[in-house]
């Protein structure tokens, strides 16, 4: 019975990592990309997101609750998984280890980012281009954001591989190998978008 529960918990964890958390990540990257067009374009995009109807309900039920479940259960998986990359040093096993490592980094980064932006906004700060430019004016914070964004994107992109396996989309070794390269291409493409947005604030 407990094995069945864990099976469903893992499937839910995988699903929520893609829908809706992964979709929110892509949407967030798209909004941040407006920074490359200047402060006004970014502020308009951010204001549009803030003015969505039922914003708080969307944030709670579509973002925060799925994110909390995915994060908490993900920490459990990270600290109970048997990493064997040292024994079987081929690419898939190293990606398995990196998925766990970037999951922890992502949790730290996202928690800090929410503190600096969303919670700060509730305390009266305005989330705009100048706020992000001020945060990223520190070389330490710039490095922290670069590592955090790259880790988050990798965790999502590589997580797509696990999602496809978990949900029976890629069953054969060949399909799983193709999926590995597809998800790595997604990682590179989204990393370009994320880094371009970060550097636009500098």
UniProtKB/TrEMBL annotation:
Record localization: Membrane
Per UniProt, the keywords (alphabetical) are: Heme, Iron, Membrane, Metal-binding, Transmembrane, Transmembrane helix
Q: What is this protein called?
A: Succinate dehydrogenase, cytochrome b558 subunit
UniProt keyword Transmembrane helix present: yes
Q: Per its UniProt record, what Pfam families does this chain match?
A: Sdh_cyt
List all membrane-crossing ranges: 12-36, 56-81, 93-115, 135-157, 178-201
What organism, scientifically named, is this protein from?
Bacillus atrophaeus (strain 1942)
Source taxon at top rank: Bacteria
Which SUPFAM superfamilies does its entry note?
Answer: Fumarate reductase respiratory complex transmembrane subunits
């Amino acid at each position: 019975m407990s094995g069945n529960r864990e099976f469903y918990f893992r499937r839910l964890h995988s699903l929520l990592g893609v829908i809706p958390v992964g979709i929110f990540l892509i949407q967030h990257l798209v909004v941040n990309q407006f920074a490359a067009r200047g402060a006004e374009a970014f502020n308009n995009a951010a204001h549009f997101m803030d003015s969505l109807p039922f914003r708080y309900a969307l944030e709670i039920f579509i973002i925060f609750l799925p994110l909390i479940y995915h994060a908490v259960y993900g920490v459990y998986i990270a600290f109970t998984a048997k990493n064997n990359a040292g024994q079987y040093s081929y690419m898939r096993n190293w990606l398995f280890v990196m998925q766990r490592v970037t999951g922890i980094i992502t949790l730290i980064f996202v928690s800090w980012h929410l503190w600096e932006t969303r919670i700060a906004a509730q305390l009266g700060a305005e989330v705009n281009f100048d706020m992000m430019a001020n945060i990223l004016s520190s070389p330490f914070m710039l490095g922290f954001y670069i590592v955090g964004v790259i880790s988050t994107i990798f965790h999502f992109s590589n997580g797509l591989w696990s999602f496809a396996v978990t949900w029976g989309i890629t069953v054969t070794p060949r399909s799983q190998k193709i999926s590995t390269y597809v998800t790595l291409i997604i990682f590179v493409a989204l990393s370009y978008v994320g880094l371009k947005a970060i550097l636009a604030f500098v």
